[in-house]
Structure formats: C-alpha cells, structure tokens
Write a structure and sequence with these properties.
Blueprint lengths: L12 H6 L3 H18 L4 H10 L1
Length: 54
C-alpha cells in the first residue's frame, strides 16, 4: 500500500491502517491544527465592523 500523501510504500502495519507514513501523518496533523487555529481567528476588520454595528 502507498502513502496517500507522498505515494511511497508504507512499511509498518500501523501506517498501512492509517494510510499515511509517520512523517506524512505528523505533517497532516499539523495542517489540521493550523487550519482549526486559522478558522478561529478574527481579523482587525471584523473587530472594527463589530464596533461600528454596536
């Protein structure tokens, strides 16, 4: 089976079950955390709009 991210051959049973090698899994997890962080951020424009509406 190949890694879904880099398409290299997966060697360990755990990697095969997950579908990602250990390095690609770390990168994938980091991207998910960053995406969640960015989703929760607000911009200065949003803050200013809230003040104008109030």
């Amino acid at each position: 089976m190949l890694c879904q991210r880099c398409h290299r051959k997966l060697k360990s049973q755990r990697s095969i079950e997950i579908g990602l090698g250990p390095i690609c899994k770390k990168k994938h997890d980091r991207e998910l955390v960053e995406a969640e962080f960015l989703k929760n951020q607000i911009t200065i424009d949003e803050v200013l709009e809230e003040k104008q509406v109030s």
